[in-house]
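#help-structures
NK: newbie question, is this the right format to request a structure? protein is LSME1 protein
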Amino acid sequence: MERPSLESNLPDTHEEGKLYVVDSLNNLNKLNVCPDESQRSLDEEDSAGGTGDRMAGSNTRNQCLFFVTFILTLIISLALVSFAIFLILQTKSEVDQISSRLLSEKKNIEELKKINNIILKHLNQSGIKE
């Protein structure tokens, strides 16, 4: 019951109390979550500049992460494209070998047809029939 009357009389004190509680909770959270070395860096950030520096550091970190991811993506895509080109060239050489074999086989088949025709003509001329 006394609290509402104090709050109505001292609104600035109540707001300061809220800020103090929030700061205390933040400090407690830092102690529980962060190890000693990172706590020092957090304390230095708090004393150095506050949220502006944190946002700039976070922005820089995000840009670096994006840039590294972009470069890795480019390297991986370059490797994949190189592999695809290698496979295309390998396939082209295989196709060239197969087509040269087919051409040589076609020539062999044509020669065999000519030899067969010559044999048939010779058999017909000699009078031997089946």
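mod (FA): yep, format's fine, and the tokens are attached above. The chain has four helices and no strands.
NK: thank you!
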